[in-house]
Amino acid sequence: MTMNAALIRALLRLVGASLVSLVFVTVAVFFITAVLPGDVADALLGQAATPDAVSALRHSLNLDKPVLVRFVIWVTGLLHGDFGVSLVSHRPVLAMASERLIHSLLLAGVTALFAVPVALLLGTTAAIFRNTLFDRAVSLLTLCIVSVPEFLVATLAVFIFSVQLHLLPALASISDIHSIGSFLASFSMPVTTLACVIVGQMSRMTRAVMIDALGSSWVEMAVLKGASPAHIILRHVIPNVIAPLFNVIALSLSYLLGGVVIVESVFHYPGIASLMVDSVAARDIPLVQICALIFCAAYLFLTTLADIVALLSSQRRHAA
Amino acid sequence: MLSRRDMMKQGALLVAAGGGALRSCPARAAQPLRGGHVRVASTTGSLSDTLDPARESMATDYMRGAMFYDGLVTLDATLVPQPALAERIESDDFRTWTFHLRPGVQFHDGATLTSADVVYSLRRHLDPLVASQVRFQARAMRSVRADGPLGVVIELDAPNISFPSVLGLNNFAIIRDGTKNFETANGTGPFRCAAFQPGIRSLAVRNPDFWKTDGVWIDSLELISISDDMARHNALLSGDVDIIAEVNPRLVALLRQRGMGVMESPTGTYTDLAIRQDIGPGKNPEFVQAIKHLFNRDQVADSVWLGFCRLGNDQPLPPEDRYYNHDLPQTVFDPDRAKWLLNKNGFLNQELPPLICSPAANASVDIAVLLQNEASRIGMKLDVRRMPADGYWSQSWMHFPLGFGNVNARGSADMTFSLAFASAAPWNESHWRSSRFDELLALSRREADEAKRKAIYYEMQTLIHDGSGLCIPNFITSLDGYHQRIRGLRPHLGGHLMGNNFSRFIWVDENAGARETESAPA
Q1: A interface mutation test: which of B42, B43, B44, B46 has the most A CBs within 10 A?
Q2: Is B31:B468 a contact under the CB 8 Å cutoff?
Q3: Where does the Solute-binding protein family domain lie (chain B) (predicted)?
């Protein structure tokens, strides 16, 4: 009973800390974007930005008000659930961002579905057969894959599979997807490119975590008791590495949402990462804000989830 | 003697005179065919993509706008204004202009074009919230009023014989009276907007009620933008798209070798170094002279543009322009003279302001490094400061004593002179002031005699060449790539892809690939 109360208290503390970080990040993003050189009026007018045109536009967009006043206006809107409209297109930013977020989640989801099992399998087997030829081969291969920048992987893949072999489309335009076949064709190269980054990283971390666990005293004890290797892995190792593994997975997934600008641009995939880059270039602050908010929330959600898993698994071990 | 009325007739004469200047593609005798879907990849696209003609500022915007909207006039391949929504244009004094609209033209929503639409479309450029790219040009219109349902009278603040060219700019396209929402396009153009997602794609389908009965061959067109150079070329090679804008000069040979077409359009686009004459060393004309002699124009042409450019002579009209001054002596690469001039004025032992360049100004970083190299050979220390592309035009361009810029081909010589060289011009990059030039500009705008106007333009080019702080080493030849099955593309002085108007002219030859293989020698 007390155990559960302590657990709930710990969980609440975690969630509370996440919320505080979220507020901090939004405030920080607002003021950082405020000190960026130039504003949306400069960006909209570009080379046509004569001083009088800029000041007139700035005035009509309320950009000539002091930054604190603009902050208060923005926070007031936010508290009423109004994320604002884009300064460039005048569309609600929430709708614009959620449309792109769905695309990003789809790409990230498919990649994770494919990459996570492969990475865990590679990492675990490499740990079990450590210092064998298999382990060295996996190690070398993953190191190679991690070291190659993703734009090179993507461009080479397009060159081979689209330009030379005419097997797959060079672009992953979401509007062209009408069937499972075209979905697979469109997604195979972006997913493979992203998987290269993730699998390399994740399998190496999995291997390290597993080796750590395999060398622990309780595994040694189990070996001495004469337990079978399968029993040792499933009963003694896996439960102990769930928490660190989940951490590894959470970090990789948050990368899949926000860190994939290059893949999005090479394959012309309309995800949320390129929306954020665009919005910063256009100085469209409400849109920058909501993108930052989404990335931050996703990151916090995943890491908090990992923390909760860690908490629960330690709980279980203590209880056992 | 040219008639002062009916400017369009004059325009037609000029087409005949200037048409030979452009190199055309190898002519194919085949008859254009109706139908087909075409996919086009342009370079820059972002959430700032717009369907508001006033806000169009990127090539992708111009291409998109040209599919959905028409202007009162259109600029042809040699930039001569031709009738579009206005079938007749009249002016007695070049100050008050009367535009007679084409009757029976329909907007995509079914409404008929009237003078009210034109008045609304032109007046809104003055509203600051519209954030129009051509607000400065629009300010020359003192009043715009309707004269009956099909007449529009525009009164300028001063006479300007080239005024119809101004209205040929894509930004002055005509929209429906009262339009405030640009989530879709309601124009009179040859295509209707079937989908528009900023930063993702635009889909155009043919407008069956288009007012012009000839031309416009394709059924639909999808426009996307791929900023990554390699990805854009790969998309063409793999067949994902049929046309790409801005072929990298280094990849021209590869595309041609793989059976793709590359169209070379000689344009008035240039990357320039502006030496400000109101601050820093540029106040001394001999410093400016020396830097002009330090540009190794042939080397820039070979190593930066790989030959896809034409020689520049420090004045803004390209050699193909019908007013180009052929008598002006060419500024030559002369490091000895540069050294002598700099030494005489003590600039060799002086700390000089850095060369400001940026990826935002096409190839300016490469050109700056070449200039720095030539400078170091004569003992002059020039630093190169590379600025980020983001915010370059508002934060850096025209702010420094020595800075690079990049200017797209403009619609007419008059626009070039009045926007970038007149004393009051907002984009006078070198802050050059010449009262003689201002006088000539006003004079040229009233001069109906073509020969006399040409003489005035000659002198204006000489004044810029000798006096302004602008170094224009080369004019850039724009390159566009296309698949064999795309026909009808022709070079255009206005820039990429027929001045961004290609959608109205191209047609699809589905048998092109097969025919090519059959006729290819074994």
Answers
A1: B46
A2: no
A3: 81-427
Confidence at B375, pLDDT banded by 50, 70, 90? very high
Among B393, B371, B384, B396, CA closest to B474: B371
Of A58 and B42, more confident: B42
Q: How far is B258 from chain A (nearest CA, A)?
A: 10
Q: How far apart are CA B70 and CA B65, in angstroms?
A: 8
Does residue A289 contact residue A283 with C-beta atoms inside 8 Å?
no
Lowest-pLDDT range of B103-107, B305-309, B517-521 = B517-521
Q: What is the pLDDT of residues A230-283, one digit of tens each?
A: 888 878 887 788 888 888 888 888 888 777 888 888 888 888 988 888 888 888
CA distances from B27 to A4, A292, B32 (A): 83, 54, 12
* Residue ranges of B 223-262 with Cβ closer than 8 A to chain A: 224, 226-228, 230-231, 234-235, 237-241
Helices (H), B48-159: 59-68, 115-123, 135-138
Q: For chain A, what are the domain ranges?
A: 93-319
Residues in chain A closer than 8 A to B390 (CB atoms): 280-281
On the question of pLDDT at B10 being above 50, the answer is no
Q: Which residue has the higher pLDDT, A34 or B373?
A: B373
Domains defined along chain B, listed by start: 4-39+186-267+479-513 (3.40.190.10), 69-172 (3.90.76.10), 270-476 (3.10.105.10)
Task: Determine, for residues A287 and B47 on separate chains, whether the beta-carbon distance falls below 8 Å.
Answer: yes
CB-closest option in A49, A56, A175 to B201: A175
The pLDDT of residue B471: 96
C-alpha radius of gyration, chain A, whole number: 24
Q: What is the 3-state secondary structure (H, E, C) of chain A?
A: CHHHHHHHHHHHHHHHHHHHHHHHHHHHHHHHHHHCCCCHHHHHHHHHCCHHHHHHHHHHCCCCCCHHHHHHHHHHHHHCCCCCECCCCCCEHHHHHHHHHHHHHHHHHHHHHHHHHHHHHHHHHHHHCCCCHHHHHHHHHHHHHHHCCHHHHHHHHHHHHHHHCCCCCCCCCHHHCCCHHHHHHHHHHHHHHHHHHHHHHHHHHHHHHHHHHHCCHHHHHHHHHCCCHHHHHHHHHHHHHHHHHHHHHHHHHHHHHHCCHHHHHHCCCCCHHHHHHHHHHCCCHHHHHHHHHHHHHHHHHHHHHHHHHHHHHHHHHHHC
Contact B57 A49 (CB under 8 A): no
- Asked whether the beta carbons of residue A155 and residue B231 sit closer than 8 angstroms, the reply is yes
Tens digits of residue pLDDT in A163-186 = 888 888 888 877 777 788 888 888
What superfamily in CATH does domain A93-319 come from? MetI-like (1.10.3720.10)
Question: Which residue of A lies nearest to B426 if distances are taken between CA atoms?
Answer: A50
The alpha-carbon gap from B231 to the nearest alpha carbon of chain A, in Å, equals 5
**Mean local confidence (pLDDT), B428-454:** 95
What is the per-residue pLDDT across A266-280, written as a single tens digit (0 to 9) for each?
A: 888 888 988 888 888
Q: Tell me if B128 and A278 make a contact (CB, 8 A cut-off).
A: no
Could B235 and A170 be called an inter-chain contact, meaning their C-beta atoms sit closer than 8 Å? yes
Distance from CA of A281 to the nearest CA of B (A): 6
